[in-house]
Design a protein that fits this description.
By secondary structure, the protein is an alpha+beta fold. 28% of the residues lie in helices and 23% in strands. The strands form three sheets. Strands 3, 5, 6, 7, 8, 9, 10 and 11 form an eight-stranded mixed β-sheet that branches. A two-stranded parallel sheet has the order 1-2. A two-stranded antiparallel sheet has the order 4-12. A hairpin with a 5-residue loop joins strand 6 and strand 7.
């Protein structure tokens, strides 16, 4: 569970923001859904500087109910021979965060953002995929492909990894589009690389919301490719360069090391990308509680 980011657009540590009727965080709903889908262990990736607060407010809820581990992402967690570039303050990105959990994971696992409300069906389809993998499987990964029309914010544009798949729904590429929104004509569009052209896509287009399924061999691939990433001139010259999960996955797909099944889900994403999203998110959670999808008090 990736929880090391501060949420710059939101303006605070949104992973710990109480949005449910009893102060539940989005994380709490994610964990509730994951447990009910069959997941049996939690690994949080956080920053060391808010460890105490995180343990008191978050981890304490689950200890005693299922195994919980906390690992830390930091700028200086680098391969031997590499050092933090002068002036760099930004973390190394989502795949670097995943790498921090290597010592805590020995089984097929899912990766999620802690500030995204993914919905119950998404956990069910991922749990089914991972639990059906033959023992010892390597290179057979998955991604929950949310329908882009189910992932938009009414408060502004969103960033999504737009996916291309083959006829069997295996991932061929993920292209990060940093500005996606529904236009006045009702069509979902993204801003193309030229920063002037808006390109329309169907509502059902699968997008990545950073909900992945991997087997432990993924760590070795990541460790090796991270060295290559750090050695690139483009990385050295950009103190904000990030080692994203889609970058790693795209490499493994292209060289034939792994396949990634794109799992369809009916779940509707919501979250707090912008402060203006908060009241709507609180209302949506309350509606799910009122409908009996979740109990009034989760844990």
């Amino acid at each position: 569970m990736l929880a090391a980011g501060m949420g710059s657009r939101y303006g605070g540590l949104k992973q710990m923001d109480g949005l449910g009727p009893n102060g539940e965080t989005i994380m709490d709903y994610s964990i509730y859904d994951a447990i009910h889908a069959g997941f049996g262990k939690l690994v949080f990736v956080i920053r060391k500087d808010f460890e105490q607060d995180f343990r008191e407010k978050i981890v304490s809820k689950y200890e005693g109910h299922l195994p919980v581990e906390v690992v830390f992402q930091s700028l200086d967690k680098l391969p031997e021979g590499f050092s933090v570039p002068e002036g760099r303050t930004k973390p190394w990105g989502t795949n670097h965060a995943v790498m921090m959990a290597e010592g805590a994971i020995n089984e097929p696992f899912a990766v999620i953002n802690c500030d995204d409300f993914y919905g119950r069906d998404s956990y069910n389809v991922m749990a089914k995929f991972l639990s059906n993998l033959p023992e010892g499987s390597i290179g057979k990964y998955a991604m929950v492909g949310f329908r882009v029309g189910n992932t938009l914010s009414e408060s502004g544009t969103v960033s999504r990894g737009v996916c291309a798949t083959d006829n069997d729904r295996y991932l061929q590429s993920v292209v990060e589009r940093t500005k996606i929104e529904r236009k006045d004509d009702g069509v979902v569009k993204f801003l193309d690389d030229d920063d002037t052209t808006w390109v329309g896509i169907p509502d059902t287009t699968p997008v990545s919301m950073n909900f992945w399924g991997f087997t432990p061999d993924y760590f070795a691939h990541s460790n090796e490719y991270f060295k290559y990433f750090l050695s690139q001139e483009s990385t050295k010259q950009n103190i904000k360069a990030e080692f994203f999960i889609p970058l790693m996955v795209d490499k493994l797909i292209k060289d034939g090391t792994a396949s990634v099944k794109v799992l369809d889900t009916t779940s509707k994403w919501f979250g707090v990308t912008y402060p203006e999203d908060r009241p709507d998110t609180v209302a949506k959670i309350q509606k799910l509680v009122d409908e009996g999808v979740y109990p009034e008090k989760l844990f």
